[in-house]
Amidohydrolase-related domain-containing protein (Pseudorhodoferax aquiterrae), 338 residues
Amino acid sequence: MTHPAIGSDAWLHQVREQPIDPERPIIDPHHHLWHARGDWGPYLLGQLWADTGAGHNIRKTVFIECRASYRTDGPEHLRSVGEADFVAGIARASREGGGGAEIAGFVGHTDLRQGEAQLREVLAAQADAAQGLFRGIRHAGARDPNPEALTIPGRGSEGLYADADFRAGVALLGRLGHTYDTWHYHHQNPAFAALARAVPGTTLVLDHFGTPLGVGAYAGQRDAIFSQWQRDIEEIARCPNVVAKLGGLAMPDNGFGWDRRALPASSDELVEAQGRYYRHTIECFGPQRCMFESNFPVDRRSLPYVSYWNAMKKIAKGYSADEQHAMFHGTAERVYRL
């Protein structure tokens, strides 16, 4: 018997859940867009709206850089501005089309080590191209000594978070009122905490819980990694300039295996397998410094969009109305100035 392709609509539609609390307003502060990527098909406005419009009340979204549609000519340091051009056009259609969630923020990419004069030039160009959507930069630090074991290996440089030029770039973002998003692996959490302490004037956004790995050399070590991860998250949370995105744990490299099954994961499975990561991070940071994130379409290879948000609503059920609103809407609205 031939099963539907992992991540396809046919595969995802095998698990259909009714949306919980469908009127609750939500901002999804972390998704990507691209024409095509490797064996990934296109994920553009139509695909985004199909997910965000599947039953939950997704009001706004924030695009996070994924090296999409860079310019192919011109100065090397300005080529990433092509991503801002690309997203600005789709965001304009999301506002004018009236058919779904509005793409209300853009976080781009540039090398933060390039020096203040050139960095200011790039940031100004990003802001101009993004047509009012520019909110910050993600220059990810993700680096692992065994990248061949990873489905999505990071491109971070060795020692990036301790690099003086990099820290100067992150500090400049704060002075200019921009945020810094990051993505790294669990063993890099202490280095990220040191970065956060070094740049107290910049709001740092910790994506994907610091990505606890569960494949390759990390397979079979989930509980040991979780124990160290708990301590590291406690240390990061002591930095008041850091906010946490809660999601992105369903990537293949997290090792839960949902991307290799005949059926996608349900919301109950996510809560059972991953709830402790969510609860610990919320306990450490507090709801006012936490925001739920879908990380679609990457996590689409593990579960449907409706199931992800149902799981978040199950996890959030025990918190007050104000605390729930913060995690679903208010924190993202504040941090990304939406």
User: Anything to note?
Assistant: The chain has a mean pLDDT of 97. The radius of gyration is 19 Å.
